[in-house]
Design a protein that fits this description.
The protein contains nine helices and nine strands. The chain is of the alpha+beta class. Helix 2 crosses helix 4 and helix 3 packs antiparallel against helix 4. The longest helix has 15 residues. The termini are far apart.
Length: 311
């Protein structure tokens, strides 16, 4: 057995070395150590560096949260919510979030705010990870993301979200997973994504109305890379979904069209594609729940999460 103080000391070193020590333990010691790592990862009072380190060790030895054929899904209750942004809120938002580099035309594309009623559905607790996507790549003989090394993801990133996948790749994964499990997985609609992220109280971020760089992996976090999924537990949305702001952008199943009732002049929507939501580790302005855009030509940090209809 390794004592608590020694375990914490190991977290400050190499994740690969920690994992090697863990594999040398008897079964009971390994289970105890994994429980320790999970407790650190899921405790918002722990330093982000400790949570990240715990997640990286789990990426080497097996993260119990990552189950390729049984992804954790969160239920979202049926009923209405307010989607989008009111036109009169555009200027106050620009003034309140000057540090985010927002532009007026971006916010106008979120207007008007409108009520949407949705049936009950489920959404992935976390984005799809590299390990889950590799199961698909191997089984379906599908092309891997170009940042992978050969036929596998970078070392130590099994439980990081996959990115650099096209909209078609994400749809193909959902279809493959459905065939493997008998469960009809799909991408969330834009409305489902926003409701899961902001709930029914119109909040700006999954955790509330005030931006907090300590609750997500963004350009202001100082990490500069993806992180293991779910290491920002206090950034969870009301339904319990994690990483809905930051880490990687996420595809939805909807094409970028103006909302019904859009009356903000001749804004150009012609360059937009499938709607992306949530922002990535190298962004800040895209983290708000209502923020919508198509794929940026220079931005390939796009992944996805699953959704499922409840019948």
């Amino acid at each position: 057995m390794i004592g608590q103080e020694d375990l914490r000391a190991l977290l400050t070193g190499s994740p690969a070395d920690f994992a090697r020590r863990l594999r040398e333990l008897p079964a009971d010691g390994r289970r105890q150590t994994v429980r320790f790592l999970m407790a650190v990862l899921e405790d918002a009072s722990e330093a982000v560096s400790s949570r990240r380190a715990a997640g990286r060790v789990l990426s080497y030895v097996g993260d119990p949260r990552v189950l390729p054929l049984a992804p954790a899904m969160m239920r979202v209750a049926p009923g209405p919510f307010l989607m989008g942004t009111r036109s009169e809120d555009v200027l106050p938002l620009l003034q309140r979030h000057q540090q985010l580099g927002l532009r007026r035309e971006w916010l106008l594309k979120e207007t008007p705010r409108h009520e949407v009623s949705l049936p009950e559905f489920e959404i992935g607790r976390c984005p799809v990870t590299n390990l889950e996507y590799k199961r698909f790549v191997d089984d379906a003989q599908y092309q891997q993301p170009r940042y992978w090394q050969g036929t596998s993801f970078p070392d130590g990133k099994a439980n990081h979200p996959v990115w650099g996948v096209s909209w078609g790749d994400a749809v193909a994964y959902c279809q493959w997973l459905g065939a493997q499990t008998g469960v009809q997985y799909r991408l969330p609609t834009e409305a489902e994504w926003e409701k899961a992220a902001r709930g029914t109280d119109g909040r700006e971020y999954p955790w509330g109305d005030a931006f907090d760089p300590g609750r997500c992996n963004s350009a202001l976090s100082g990490i500069g890379d993806t992180t293991p999924v779910g290491i920002f537990p206090d950034g969870a949305s009301l339904c319990g979904a994690l990483d809905m702001a930051g880490n990687v952008e996420e595809w939805t199943s909807d094409w970028f069209y103006p909302y019904l009732g859009f009356d903000q002049g001749d804004l150009d929507f012609s360059h937009e594609t499938w709607v992306c939501r949530g922002g990535a580790f190298d962004g800040v302005d895209t983290l708000r729940c209502a923020r919508r855009h198509g794929q940026y030509a220079s931005d390939q940090h796009i992944g996805f999460r699953l959704a499922r209809s409840v019948t």
